[in-house]
């Protein structure tokens, strides 16, 4: 359903932000065609990319608005099939945006690594530490939403086994930046694995990194 809006309409602003983030992620190669989805929350409403739309060409008018129960508020297209996943993350975590990708390196790692991607680089401290790999569950299912939410406990990113990756943040910018970092980390892991056995940083090293990041104001 649709309604008349003016340029100051906060829902229109939110829809524009989701559409722009989708196009940017497509240009960066993190989402392709219809593979992936993006959402942002404002109070009790969520703007999410529609199912079946080309993310690289997405426009604000195609973005759907729903409430936290998934009830349609605005938009003429069906929301992404991963709406249950996005809504679960907003209910379970204090976040403002979700980026779900099928980016090549992250998806490849999600197809081979079990349990977690170890801390092979100190910048993983910005994500909360090692990146958990949620067990495989069918796309669009409540079961996938459940295991993904658990994998994101105290983390900003997770991998979904044989599926892709999920990144969250207080804003769309933060969530997108986290998705880019995760893709880079997975590329590094794949290259390191081809050369040998990647070394993981120990708990003391990560604690020192977190302390230094906090001193420099990189994290709160």
Automatic annotation (TrEMBL):
<dbReference type="GO" id="GO:0005829">
    <property type="term" value="C:cytosol"/>
</dbReference>
<dbReference type="GO" id="GO:0019323">
    <property type="term" value="P:pentose catabolic process"/>
</dbReference>
<feature type="domain" description="Class II aldolase/adducin N-terminal">
    <location>
        <begin position="16"/>
        <end position="190"/>
    </location>
</feature>
<dbReference type="GO" id="GO:0046872">
    <property type="term" value="F:metal ion binding"/>
</dbReference>
<keyword id="KW-0456">Lyase</keyword>
<keyword id="KW-0479">Metal-binding</keyword>
<dbReference type="GO" id="GO:0016832">
    <property type="term" value="F:aldehyde-lyase activity"/>
</dbReference>
<dbReference type="InterPro" id="IPR050197">
    <property type="entry name" value="Aldolase_class_II_sugar_metab"/>
</dbReference>
<dbReference type="Pfam" id="PF00596">
    <property type="entry name" value="Aldolase_II"/>
</dbReference>
<protein>
    <submittedName>
        <fullName>L-fuculose-phosphate aldolase</fullName>
    </submittedName>
</protein>
<dbReference type="InterPro" id="IPR001303">
    <property type="entry name" value="Aldolase_II/adducin_N"/>
</dbReference>
<dbReference type="InterPro" id="IPR036409">
    <property type="entry name" value="Aldolase_II/adducin_N_sf"/>
</dbReference>
